[in-house]
Amino acid sequence: MIKGSIVNLTTPTHSDGSPDYEVLETLVDWHVDCGSSALIVGSALNQSSEMSIDERTEILRRAIWQSDGRIDVIADLSSSRQEAVFDFASAADEFGASAALLTLPSPIGLSQNELFEYLRAVLELGGLPLIISDDLRASNSLPSIDVAALSQISGIAGFINYSANPIEGHIPELPSGFALYSGDVASGCHRVLNGYAGIVSVVANIAPALVHSLYSAAASGDQKKAELLNARLLPLVQVILEEPNALPIKWALIEMGSIPEGSHPPSLLHTSDYADLRRALRAALIPI
């Protein structure tokens, strides 16, 4: 079971939108140094929809190669085409990913039996532990009863709850090998205190050490410390989630010196965006 701070990794790109594989490798090393537990590759901020299958496959291969077993890499399989999901599952298994992630769109458009047969086919082809996610844009697309049923399928390793609403109080006790993850960072502190296995976060692209410390404090039962760290993180969460794209994250990483500026640095839409992001970074005590 993967536990801890899980970074929903944004893919660095060149000015033409193509993936910047060298910077990707730099970011993998940085997240290892910052104590992140795992990287989800290919799913953050809907970037995968803008990339070709070859680009997505190469991003995964590079990330796994660079990780060299130092950090878990979770391969995002999500696609609107089932054939592509099967191709990604096979590639993830071949490259040596630690697990795979599959986001179920809303509405799913399948009966529960059809859905479970589809998931079993993905599991059989890929051979990796499979983490299921609801749709970030339509939180809790799976009713809670389905989470309990999912946990009974051999090979399904966990479920990411992106909703601000808890689901754990509405389902029976889960198997020991099945994990709940919080995709809602604001409530992640209290969810880990209540037994969630980890926090999945886009904001951890910028503040990996802080999210890792938050998880560690909550997992150890230190509620006071966890809540203090959560308060530091919340202004950054609010600013980043206001913009559903990778530009603020890339801009912040350049300001922090974590990635090179390049010949075409990103520009935010409004002058106020720079000020808001700078204030949020300072509130989180992140040097810029």
UniProtKB/TrEMBL annotation:
The record's InterPro entries line, in alphabetical order, gives: Aldolase_TIM (IPR013785), DapA-like (IPR002220)
User: Coiled-coil region(s) at which residues?
Assistant: none
| Domain of life, source organism | Bacteria
Could you tell me what this protein is called?
Dihydrodipicolinate synthase family protein
Q: What is the lineage of its organism?
A: Bacteria, Pseudomonadati, Pseudomonadota, Gammaproteobacteria, Cellvibrionales
Can you name the source organism? Zhongshania arctica
- Which family is annotated? Belongs to the DapA family.
- Give a Pfam family name: DHDPS
Q: Which UniProt keywords apply?
A: Lyase
Against SUPFAM superfamilies, the record matches this protein to: Aldolase
